[in-house]
C-alpha cells in the first residue's frame, strides 16, 4: 500500500493528456479562489492571536505548509491501518502455531511450517512499512508525532515484539540445543538490538540538532515551566519524546546484557572479553536511563528501570532508593510499589543483633564495610516492616555509619604517614557513607510523604491512628540517625584535638572538612524537606489529644509523640551546639543556592516546593568570589539547617527553641528544667498573692473595732464583759487532709456552737489554716478525681471566707495584746506571716526525748482503757447532741454539710498522707509534682459519705459499731507496739521532712505562745483533766508521728493530735469543757 503523494502516473498516459491537465490546472485554481470566501471572525482578539506566532515557535515549532499537514493526516491513517493489519497477522500466526500437527508425517508438518513462514514474512513486510511511516511522521513534525504517541507505538509494534520473541527462544534453547544453533540465534539477536539502538540514537541526535536541546538543562527548564504554569508546552513535548527514546535505548542495552555472547558459563580468557562486554552493556543501560531522568523530571518510569539495573549490578539500598523515587514523582511508576514489595520478599536479612556500643573493641570484631552493611540491613528491615507490613516490630536503630566513620578516622590518625593508598581508602569509605546516608534520608522522607498521602484517602480513615503512629516512627528514626552521627563524629574529632600533638594538628581541619562533606548533604535534604513541610511534624508536637489509643503491639500513640518530641529536641540541641553552626553574619550564600543533591532529587514531589525556590541557573548575583568551593557548599548546607531551626523557633507548636535577639543565637530549653521553672513560678505567684491578701486583711483588722455585740441585742454591758473574760479559745490547726477528707466538718467548726443550751458561750474555736495548706490545695486542684474536686471546693470556700471577712470587716482574730477583745463565737482564719518560729532550729527546745515519749505512751494507754468504758455511758448523750447541732451562718454551710461525722470513718486508724515524700532538693520536688495527683479515689471514698450525709435516726447503731472498732484497734495497736519495741531508732528534730515543717512550725509557734500565757488552763480544772487548747487535726499518719515527738520536754507531754473524726466527736459531746484526754487515739 502506498500513499497518494508518493504514487506516480502510469506509463500509458500520453503527452497530450499531460498538456491538457496542465492547461486546466490554472483555471481550476482560479475558480477555487473565487469560491473561497473569507468569513469575518466573531472575536477579533482570537483572530489576532491566531495569526501571531507562539513564543516557542521559532525554536520548537517550525512552520509547516498546508500540504505537509495533509500528508501527516494521510500518514496517520495509513499507520492505523497497518497497525490493525499487523494485529490480525499476529493473531493468525498464533493460530498457525497452535495448529501445527504432532506426529502426522513430514508432509503435513512441512505444509504447516510453510504457512507459519508465510505469515511471518508478511508480518516483517508490514512491520518495515509501518516503521517507514512512523519515521516519515517523525521527520515531518516531531511535536505532532509526540501528541500522537508515535514513539510509544514505534516501540510496541516495531522493536519490542521481535526482541521478546527471540528472548523466549533463547530461554528454551539455552540448556538443550547445540552451541551452533545458540550462537547463530544470539548473533541475530545482538545484531537486531544494535540496529534498533542505532535508530534511536540517530533519532535523538536529530531532535537535539533541530530543536537545539541541551539534555543537561532541558529537564530544569521544563520543571520551572511546570511550577509556574500547568499548561503543557512544546518544550515539554520534546522532553517527553527524548525521555521515551532514552528509555528504549536503556532497555535495548539491558536486553543485550541479559544474554551475553556465550550461552554457557565458560571460563574467562586473559583479556576478560565476555565480562567486559556485559559490564559495558550494563553501564550503557544505566547511562541512558540517567539521561532519561535528566531530560524530563516528572516521570517515575526511568527510576523504576534504574532499579532493575541496580538489582543486577548495584546494592540493595540503591534498588529501594530508585523504587522510592519512582513512587514520589508527579507521574509515578505504575508498577513501582508492586516491584518493591516483590523485591523485599526476595531479600534475606543476615544481621539480627545490634552492634556493640564500645567503639574500642569494634576494630577487632567488624570492618567499616560490615558496619555499613549492618546499618543498611537494619534500616531496610524497619522500612519493610512499616511500609508494607504496617507494624512497628523491627530491630532497634543501628549506629553502623557512626561506628564506620569513627573506625576510619581512628585508623587514619594512628598511621605515622598518610600515603596515597590510605587516603583513597578513607575517601572511598566516606563516599559510601555519604551515599548511604543520602539514600536513607531520601527513602525516609519519601516514606513519610507516601504515608501522609495514604492517610488522605477516605478508604483509610479508619486506620488513620495507626498510620500516624507509623509516620511518627519514620520521623523519629530520621532524627535519631542524624543525631547519632553528629554526636559520634563530634566526639571523635574533639578527642583527636585533645590527643593530637602540634605537628599532627594540621590534618584536623582537612579531616573535619571531609566529615562535614560526608554528613551535611543528608542533613541538608532532611532540613529542607522539614522546614518547607513543617506541618508534618507540627501536628504531632502541638500537644497530645488526651486519648490513649493502643495501636498495633500495644504501644501508646502519646508515648510515640513524646519520643518524637524528645528526638526533635535532641536534634535541635545537637545542631545548635555544633561548632560549625553558622551565625547570621556568616550567611552570605542563601539557602536557595543550588547544590548537587538538589539536581539529584529534582522533581521529587515532597521537595517540589523547596526546589521551586532554588536558583539552579544562578541568575541572582551573589557577593561571593569563590562560589564553587567546598566551604561555600558547606555554608549553604548549614544555612538550610539554620533555616530549619528558625522555623522551629517561630512555630507555635514547638516551645523548646528560643531566639535571643541581643546575642543573635538560638538555645534549646530542657523539658524538665522548663517544667521545674514553671512550677516554681506558679508557686511564687501563689505565695505573693497570699501575702498580699494577708497584708490587706491585717490592715482592715487594725482599722476596725471588734465587738461581740450584735444589732438588736438588749443585754447589758456587764454580762458581755463577763462573758468575754470567761471565754476559752481552742486553737485548731488543720492540714490539707482535713479539707480533703472532711470539708463539711471544717465548715462546721468555723461556726461551731459548743454548748447550745447556754446563753453565754464559755468556749469557742479558732480554726487556723496554715499558708502551706493553701499551696498544697493549689497543687491538688488539677484533675477530675474526687480528691481534685474537694481541693477546688476547699479553695473556693477559703476564698469566699476571706473575701467576706474583708468586705464586712468582721474577721475575728486573737492576739497576745490586751488591747483587743476576744470574739464571742467560733471563726476561721489563715496563718499570718509572722506566726512561726522563724528558724527551724528553735524547734529543738520542743523536741521530746524518746525515753520520756515512751513513758508518756504508757500513761496514754492506761487512760485509753478508761476511756473505752466511759464512752459506753455517753453514747446516748452524744447522739442527742448530734441531732441538735446547727450552724450560725446559713450562708456558708448548707444542710447537706451538717454532720456529726459518725459514719465518716468506719475505723479510727489514721490513713497515710497524700503528700509525696521529697528530699532536700526543691527542684526534685517540683519535677515530681505532676505525679502527685495520681492518688486513687478508693482511699478517699469516705468523702462522698461526708458530702452526702443526712441526719437520721440510726446513730445509735453506728456509735456501737464505732466503739467496737475502737476496742479492736486498741488491741491491735498494743500488739504492734510490743512488736516494734525492738525496732527502735534514734531520731532528732532535723530528721523531720521539709514537707511537714511549715505546719509544725505554725503549731509550735502557737504552743510557745500558749506556754507564755497564764490563762490557758482553767482555774477549776487541772491540766491533766482539761482538753488541750491547742490541737492539730490531720489524717496523715506520718505527720501525726512527727507531731507527737514535739511538746513539753520537762513533763514529757506531746502535742495534741486528732483525726478529723475524733475531733468532731469530742466537739459534739455535752460536757466538752470537762472532757479529758482519753478521747485521743490510742497509741
From TrEMBL:
The Gene Ontology CC terms held by the record are: telomerase holoenzyme complex
Biological process GO terms, please? nuclear-transcribed mRNA catabolic process, nonsense-mediated decay
TM spans, by residue?
Answer: none
Boundaries of every Telomerase activating protein Est1-like N-terminal domain copy: 150-258
Where would I find the DNA/RNA-binding domain in this sequence?
286-609
Q: Which GO terms describe its molecular function?
A: telomerase RNA binding; telomeric DNA binding
Where does the record place Basic and acidic residues bias?
Answer: 855-873
Return the annotated region ranges for Disordered: 1-67, 855-990
Acidic residues bias: where? 919-968, 975-985
Query: Where is the signal peptide, in residue numbers?
Result: none
List, as start-end ranges, the regions of compositional bias called Polar residues: 20-29, 55-67
Question: Entry's InterPro entries?
Answer: DNA/RNA-bd_Est1-type, Est1-like_N, Est1/Ebs1-like, TPR-like_helical_dom_sf
Q: Where is the composition biased (Basic residues)?
A: 33-51
Protein's name in the database: PIN domain-containing protein
Amino acid at each position: 500500500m502506498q500513499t497518494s503523494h508518493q504514487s506516480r502516473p502510469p506509463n500509458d498516459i500520453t503527452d497530450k493528456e499531460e498538456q491538457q491537465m496542465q492547461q486546466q490546472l490554472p483555471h481550476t485554481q482560479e475558480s477555487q479562489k473565487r469560491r473561497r470566501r473569507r468569513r469575518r471572525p466573531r472575536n477579533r482578539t482570537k483572530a489576532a492571536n491566531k495569526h501571531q506566532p507562539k513564543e516557542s515557535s521559532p525554536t520548537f515549532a517550525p512552520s509547516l505548509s498546508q500540504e505537509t499537514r495533509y500528508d501527516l493526516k494521510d500518514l496517520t491513517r495509513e499507520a492505523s491501518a497497518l497497525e490493525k493489519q499487523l494485529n490480525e497477522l499476529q493473531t493468525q500466526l498464533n493460530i498457525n502455531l497452535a495448529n501445527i500437527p504432532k506426529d502426522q508425517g513430514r508432509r503435513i508438518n512441512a505444509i504447516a511450517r510453510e504457512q507459519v513462514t508465510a505469515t511471518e514474512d508478511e508480518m516483517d513486510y508490514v512491520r518495515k512499512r509501518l516503521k517507514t511511516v512512523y519515521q516519515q511522521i517523525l521527520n515531518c513534525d516531531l511535536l505532532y508525532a509526540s501528541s500522537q504517541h508515535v514513539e510509544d507505538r514505534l516501540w510496541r509494534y516495531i522493536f519490542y515484539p521481535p526482541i521478546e520473541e527471540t528472548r523466549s527462544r533463547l530461554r528454551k534453547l539455552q540448556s538443550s540445543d547445540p552451541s551452533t544453533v545458540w550462537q547463530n540465534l544470539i548473533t541475530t539477536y545482538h545484531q537486531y538490538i544494535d540496529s534498533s539502538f542505532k535508530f534511536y540514537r540517530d533519532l535523538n541526535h536529530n531532535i537535539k540538532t533541530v530543536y537545539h536541546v541541551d539534555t543537561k538543562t532541558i529537564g530544569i527548564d521544563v520543571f520551572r515551566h511546570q511550577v509556574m504554569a500547568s499548561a503543557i508546552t512544546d518544550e515539554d513535548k520534546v522532553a517527553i519524546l527524548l525521555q521515551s527514546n532514552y528509555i528504549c535505548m536503556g532497555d535495548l542495552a539491558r536486553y543485550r546484557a541479559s544474554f551475553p555472547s556465550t550461552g554457557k558459563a565458560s571460563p574467562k580468557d586473559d583479556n576478560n572479553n565476555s565480562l567486559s562486554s556485559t559490564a559495558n552493556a550494563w553501564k550503557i543501560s544505566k547511562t541512558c536511563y540517567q539521561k532519561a531522568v535528566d531530560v524530563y523530571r516528572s516521570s517515575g518510569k526511568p527510576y523504576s528501570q534504574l532499579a532493575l539495573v541496580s538489582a543486577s549490578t548495584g546494592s540493595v539500598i540503591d534498588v529501594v532508593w530508585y523504587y522510592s523515587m519512582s513512587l514520589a514523582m508527579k507521574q509515578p511508576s505504575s508498577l513501582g510499589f508492586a516491584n518493591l514489595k516483590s523485591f523485599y520478599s526476595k531479600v534475606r536479612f543476615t544481621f539480627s543483633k545490634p552492634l556493640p556500643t564500645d567503639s574500642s573493641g569494634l576494630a577487632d570484631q567488624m570492618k567499616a564495610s560490615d558496619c555499613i552493611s549492618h546499618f543498611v540491613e537494619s534500616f531496610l528491615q524497619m522500612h519493610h516492616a512499616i511500609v508494607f507490613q504496617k507494624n512497628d516490630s523491627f530491630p532497634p536503630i543501628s549506629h553502623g555509619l557512626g561506628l564506620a566513620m569513627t573506625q576510619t578516622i581512628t585508623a587514619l590518625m594512628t598511621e605515622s604517614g598518610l600515603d596515597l593508598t590510605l587516603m583513597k581508602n578513607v575517601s572511598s569509605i566516606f563516599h559510601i557513607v555519604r551515599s548511604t546516608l543520602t539514600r536513607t534520608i531520601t527513602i525516609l522522607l519519601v516514606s513519610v510523604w507516601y504515608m501522609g498521602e495514604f492517610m488522605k484517602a477516605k478508604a483509610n480513615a479508619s486506620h488513620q491512628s495507626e498510620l500516624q503512629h507509623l509516620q511518627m516512627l519514620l520521623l523519629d528514626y530520621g532524627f535519631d540517625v542524624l543525631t547519632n552521627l553528629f554526636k559520634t563524629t563530634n566526639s571523635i574529632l574533639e578527642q583527636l584535638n585533645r590527643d593530637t600533638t602540634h605537628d599532627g594538628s594540621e590534618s584536623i581541619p582537612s579531616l573535619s572538612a571531609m566529615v562535614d562533606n560526608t554528613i551535611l548533604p543528608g542533613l541538608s535534604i532532611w532540613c529542607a524537606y522539614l522546614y518547607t513541610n513543617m506541618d508534618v511534624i507540627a501536628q504531632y508536637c502541638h500537644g497530645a489529644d488526651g486519648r490513649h489509643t493502643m495501636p498495633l503491639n500495644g504501644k501508646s500513640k502519646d508515648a510515640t509523640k513524646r519520643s518524637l518530641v524528645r528526638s526533635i529536641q535532641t536534634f535541635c540541641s545537637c545542631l545548635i551546639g555544633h561548632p560549625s553552626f553558622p551565625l547570621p553574619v556568616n550567611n552570605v550564600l542563601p539557602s536557595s543556592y543550588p547544590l548537587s543533591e538538589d539536581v539529584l532529587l529534582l522533581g521529587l514531589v515532597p521537595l517540589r516546593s523547596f526546589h521551586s525556590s532554588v536558583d539552579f541557573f544562578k541568575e541572582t548575583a551573589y557577593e561571593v568570589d569563590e562560589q564553587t568551593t567546598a566551604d561555600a557548599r558547606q555554608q549553604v548546607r548549614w544555612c538550610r539547617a539554620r533555616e530549619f531551626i528558625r522555623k522551629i523557633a517561630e512555630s507555635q507548636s514547638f516551645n523548646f527553641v528560643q531566639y535571643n535577639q541581643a546575642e543573635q543565637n538560638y538555645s534549646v530549653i530542657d523539658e524538665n528544667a522548663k517544667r521545674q521553672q514553671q512550677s516554681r513560678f506558679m508557686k511564687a505567684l501563689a505565695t505573693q498573692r497570699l501575702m498580699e491578701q494577708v497584708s490587706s486583711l491585717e490592715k482592715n483588722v487594725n482599722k476596725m473595732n471588734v465587738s461581740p455585740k450584735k444589732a438588736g441585742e438588749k443585754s447589758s454591758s456587764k454580762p458581755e464583759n463577763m462573758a468575754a473574760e470567761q471565754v476559752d479559745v481552742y486553737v485548731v490547726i488543720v492540714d490539707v487532709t482535713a479539707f480533703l477528707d472532711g470539708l463539711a466538718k471544717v465548715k462546721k467548726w468555723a461556726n461551731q456552737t459548743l454548748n447550745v443550751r447556754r446563753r453565754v458561750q464559755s468556749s469557742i474555736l479558732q480554726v487556723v489554716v496554715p499558708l502551706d495548706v493553701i499551696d498544697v490545695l493549689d497543687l491538688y486542684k488539677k484533675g477530675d478525681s474526687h480528691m481534685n474536686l474537694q481541693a477546688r471546693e476547699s479553695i473556693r470556700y477559703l476564698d469566699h471566707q476571706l473575701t467576706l471577712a474583708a468586705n464586712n470587716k468582721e474577721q475575728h482574730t486573737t492576739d497576745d495584746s490586751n488591747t483587743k477583745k476576744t470574739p464571742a463565737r467560733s471563726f476561721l482564719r489563715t496563718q499570718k506571716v509572722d506566726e512561726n518560729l522563724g528558724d527551724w532550729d528553735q524547734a529543738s527546745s520542743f523536741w521530746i526525748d524518746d525515753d520520756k515519749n515512751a513513758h508518756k505512751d504508757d500513761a496514754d494507754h492506761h487512760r485509753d482503757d478508761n476511756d473505752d468504758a466511759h464512752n459506753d455511758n455517753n453514747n446516748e448523750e452524744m447522739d442527742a447532741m448530734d441531732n441538735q447541732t446547727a450552724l450560725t451562718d446559713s450562708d456558708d454551710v448548707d444542710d447537706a454539710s451538717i454532720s456529726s461525722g459518725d459514719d465518716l470513718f468506719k475505723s479510727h486508724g489514721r490513713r497515710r498522707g497524700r503528700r509525696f515524700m521529697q528530699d532536700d532538693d526543691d527542684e526534685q520536688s517540683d519535677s515530681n509534682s505532676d505525679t502527685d495527683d495520681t492518688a486513687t479515689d478508693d482511699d478517699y471514698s469516705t468523702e462522698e459519705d461526708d458530702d452526702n450525709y443526712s441526719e437520721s435516726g440510726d446513730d445509735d447503731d453506728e456509735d456501737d459499731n464505732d466503739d467496737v472498732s475502737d476496742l479492736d484497734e486498741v488491741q491491735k495497736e498494743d500488739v504492734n507496739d510490743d512488736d516494734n519495741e525492738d525496732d527502735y531508732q534514734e531520731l532528732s528534730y532535723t530528721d523531720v521532712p521539709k514537707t511537714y515543717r511549715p505546719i509544725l512550725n505554725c503549731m509550735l509557734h502557737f504552743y510557745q505562745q500558749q506556754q507564755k500565757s497564764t490563762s490557758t488552763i482553767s482555774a477549776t480544772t487541772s491540766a491533766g483533766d482539761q482538753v488541750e487548747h491547742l490541737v492539730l487535726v490531720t489524717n496523715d499518719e506520718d505527720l501525726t508521728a512527727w507531731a507527737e515527738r514535739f511538746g513539753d520536754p520537762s513533763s514529757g507531754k506531746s502535742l495534741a493530735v486528732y483525726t478529723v473524726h475524733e475531733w468532731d466527736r469530742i466537739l459534739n459531746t455535752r460536757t466538752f469543757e470537762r472532757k479529758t484526754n482519753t478521747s485521743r487515739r490510742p497509741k
